[in-house]
Design brief:
CATH superfamily: TolB, C-terminal domain
Number of strands: 28
Largest sheet: 6 strands, antiparallel
CATH topology: Neuraminidase
CATH class: Mainly Beta
Distance between the termini: 77 Å
Number of helices: 5
């Protein structure tokens, strides 16, 4: 009996040591139960029979590795692609041939062509989970000149801001923490931790980018993203870089894993007053008002989506296309409704967690409120859709699934050609 007691005590002690040693970062705070409703009934009316991707995907440039974004030149004869190997690749779309183009810091991710200069591409660079990089490479917002292949850092540091957590905060256009780039110091700024996605104002003078969280050496994918998806922490930031003033300012904070972002045009002209942002791990699209009559507020546009909305893009008709990188499941719904299990899940090794291959994509009305098309995919062709990129001839699908090869595309669904 005494031996049994000693064994039990020893095992309890070992469990206690493991429990303390495996604790997630302090920024991960498990909140109250979150109950997600069934996906919008309006999706059913716009979901075709069959798996649209399995039935319609074409693939070219078969040497291209997995990638996160596709940027087309104005003529749509070439594509510049942010690949997981840390390079921009160039694809000759007519010939279907891919080649490495420019080696950039870390892994290039979200990217946009400058609306006022076809020769410039703005992109995020961050660490990819499991990859190793030179110590000199820095996370941030960069510019690529496609004619000279010159890569220029734009934002590597952001102003100190209030600690994350608590209610979501939206700052007026000129009201958030701000900093001129040449005034950055250790006292008034910190390095960008995670530059995930971006969009550019219509006049090309302001770039907005999302930072889903900024602690514990974050990376694209991996343990940090998993923890955020489990805990639903309010650790995200949305930043603005103004080229005219050379200032970085905070547009919003305390959103849950803000990822894809779109700048919305101001109907009255002038500086934009609202942004569309995905809260990826909450299956939700929100609108953030930095100006106008609703300045400082935010509103839900669409919620309870059937997958995790990742990147956002618009076609020529203004419709919004959404890559749904991973599907929602009854298991994740149960976890969020039973938060008592989360402290245990947050301590388990990420590499032991199962990963579903299913993914999907979605088209929305220009205001983001009305589904126009939806199709889930079983993962037989590609396992993750991070962004849907509309072109004149069809839709390119970005996929960061490491077993993917080539540039994927599908035709526009009936009735949705720009």
């Amino acid at each position: 009996m005494r031996i049994a007691v000693l064994i039990i005590a020893g095992l309890g002690g070992l469990f206690g040591v493991w429990w303390m040693a495996s604790a997630p970062p302090a920024a991960i705070v498990v909140g109250e139960a979150a109950e997600f409703a069934a996906p919008p009934a309006s999706l059913g009316a716009v979901t075709p029979s069959g798996d649209y991707i399995s039935l319609n995907t074409e693939r070219i440039a078969l040497t291209l590795p997995a990638y996160d974004e596709v940027v087309l030149n104005a003529e749509e004869s070439r594509a510049y692609i942010t690949a997981v190997d840390g390079w921009f690749w160039q694809v000759d779309l007519a010939a279907g041939v891919a080649a490495r183009f420019v080696d950039v810091p870390l892994m290039p991710a979200g990217a946009r062509r400058a609306p006022d200069n076809d020769g410039l591409i703005y992109f995020c660079a961050s660490r990819l989970y499991g990859a190793e990089y030179p110590a000199s490479d820095r996370v941030g917002l960069y510019q690529l000149d496609v004619d000279t292949k010159e890569v220029t850092p734009l934002v590597l540091d952001v102003p100190q801001a209030p600690a994350p957590g608590g209610a979501a905060v939206v700052y007026l256009y000129d009201g958030g923490p701000r900093l001129r780039r040449d005034e950055a110091s250790e006292e008034n700024s910190r390095p960008v931790a995670f530059c995930n996605d971006l969009d550019v104002s219509a006049d090309g003078r302001r770039i907005y980018f999302t930072e889903p969280f900024a602690y514990d050496n974050p990376s694209m994918g991996g343990a940090g993203t998993y923890r955020e998806a489990i805990a639903l922490g309010r650790n995200g930031y949305i930043w603005r870089y103004d080229m005219d003033t050379d200032e970085v300012s905070l547009a919003a904070q305390n959103f849950t894993f803000p990822d894809g972002i779109l700048v919305e045009d101001n109907p009255a002209g002038g500086v934009e007053e609202s942004l569309l942002v995905n809260e990826t791990v909450k299956f939700k699209l929100v609108r953030i008002f930095t100006g106008g009559a609703k300045a400082g507020r935010h509103e839900t546009v669409l919620e309870n989506l059937p997958g995790m909305p990742d990147g956002l893009d618009r076609d020529g008709a203004g419709r919004i296309w959404v890559g749904m990188i991973k599907q929602r499941s009854p298991v994740i719904d149960w976890i969020h409704n039973n938060p008592w299990i989360k402290p245990l899940l947050l301590r388990l090794p990420y590499d032991l967690m199962p990963s579903d291959r299913a993914t999907s994509f979605l088209a929305l009305s220009p205001d983001g409120a009305q589904p126009l098309f939806y199709s889930a995919h079983d993962g037989s062709v590609l396992t993750e859709i991070s962004v849907v990129i509309p072109a004149r001839t069809g839709l390119y699908l970005a996929t960061v699934g490491h077993d993917s090869k080539g540039l994927y595309s599908v035709p526009y669904p009936d009735g949705l050609t720009p």
